[in-house]
Amino acid sequence: MTTAVDTLAGALARWLPAQRWYAAKDREPREVLVERVTPLLDGDPALRHVLLLVDGERYQVLLGRRAALPAALAGAAIADTPAGVVYAATRDGELMTRLLGRLRAAPRGPVFEPEPGARVALDLPARVLPVEQSNTSLVLGDRYILKLFRRVLPGPHPDVELHRALRAAGTPHVARLLGALTVEVDGGRAALGVLQEFLPDARDGWALATADRTAFAPEAAALGRAVATVHGALADAFGPRNPAVPDLSDTADRLHRRFSALAGGIPELAPFEPALRAAFDRVRTAPGPFTLQRVHGDLHLGQALRSGGGWTIIDFEGEPGQPLAERNAPRHPLQDVATMLRSFDYAAHHGTADPDWARRVRDAFCDGYAGVLADPRDQPALLHALELDKAVYEVAYERANRPDWTAIPLGAVSRLLGAGS
Ligand SMILES: Nc1ncnc2c1ncn2[C@@H]1O[C@H](COP(=O)(O)OP(=O)(O)O)[C@@H](O)[C@H]1O
Ligand SMILES: O=P(O)(O)O[C@H]1O[C@H](CO)[C@@H](O[C@H]2O[C@H](CO)[C@@H](O)[C@H](O)[C@H]2O)[C@H](O)[C@H]1O
């Protein structure tokens, strides 16, 4: 006999592949299990928090239910049931306005905890950010931004942990953390979301750099200083968990493993494999010693917001597709520098190509960074290998998400190898 939960699971299996935050986007999941349903609001509309196991991986979804959907929510429908239409509740401003206030400790349900000393208004009008991203973000009253993670992973979450430590250290370059949403799973707590101060006048670095390349150049030095300041604060906050290592053989091994995992099904990368692996091997003899530390882990121009208060770095969750242990592991800080340099190259090759601009902005960023910490250009082999690693990741990312963009990172692999170390 087919139950209501089976019907819902089937409808979710058809709906998931169209969601950008669903990792295995290119196919319908084999199995969707509704693991736990927590009622947050009864009536019409109703709101449920739902944990799903999708091919064994845990996700959270917020489901609304109404007797009939208003036209504005027509695109959010998931299933027609005898009790009403079930739909993606994050699209429903009315329900999302009430979300924070409904997260009271229902047994094993989601909980919202404000940070010590933070006074949080629980009923500000909500709107969902129109950008498609790895997660789903709601702006509350233009004062807060609530990011709801889609994957639910037990253990310390870097977006919460790093923001908390950076604000405690008084770093001006991060948005204030106001609270966190968590849930109990597998005997521990898992982060479901973070609430932060919203910067209403902010524009992200990608928008700025692509709108007017000339105006962006002076900003790059300030961005370099901001990233170095954040690195210094992260090193202080988390301490020398992994004190100076004599060489970066472990990093080289990791780059090789990542290449094998990422490039397997990508024939365009095959001709570059020997040169890429040689570049990764050169990391083994880069002059040390090195101190590894917590880093941002997924830094690019879209993660840097420019507002009246200067540069703010956002989204410290690392690459969302990686396991938490990998994302929380100490790394060389040049990893973040390398990924930001890749972003300048993206901006330079978006529209009319302007490699000279990329070189100027890259130098300005490194100058700014070098004013606070060591000059990234003092480690050319490491920087080169880390840029290549990110470009390979980007080829895989673009093929899966934006095939028309694949030429940008693929061209970069070729250019970076041609340029040598
Ligand atoms: N504190 C903030 N103030 C203003 N806008 C923000 C803030 N944090 C994030 N944003 C906006 O939300 C978007 C998504 O945030 P982000 O943390 O990068 O989510 P994701 O991990 O899903 O990419 C950003 O590109 C930015 O435009
Ligand atoms: O922001 P996310 O954490 O979801 O990061 C993913 O998506 C990014 C694109 O939105 C992608 O970034 C790549 O494209 C950017 C331009 O759109 C460019 O500035 C970045 O340098 C480039 O890597 C990112 O790789 C991916 O993880």
Automatic annotation (TrEMBL):
One Gene Ontology biological process: glycogen biosynthetic process
InterPro entries: Kinase-like_dom_sf, Mak_N_cap
Enzyme kind, highest EC tier: transferase
Catalysis performed (reactions): D-maltose + ATP = alpha-maltose 1-phosphate + ADP + H(+)
Gene3D superfamilies: 3.90.1200.10
Pathway linked to the protein: Glycan biosynthesis; glycogen biosynthesis
E.C. designation(s): 2.7.1.175
Transmembrane segments: none
Domain of life assignment: Bacteria
Keywords (A to Z) from UniProt: ATP-binding, Carbohydrate metabolism, Glycogen biosynthesis, Glycogen metabolism, Kinase, Nucleotide-binding, Transferase
Molecular function via GO: ATP binding; kinase activity
Domain Maltokinase N-terminal cap: 15-92
Residue ranges the record marks as coiled coil: none
Family affiliation: Belongs to the aminoglycoside phosphotransferase family.
Assembly: Monomer.
Protein name as annotated: Maltokinase
Source species: Saccharothrix syringae
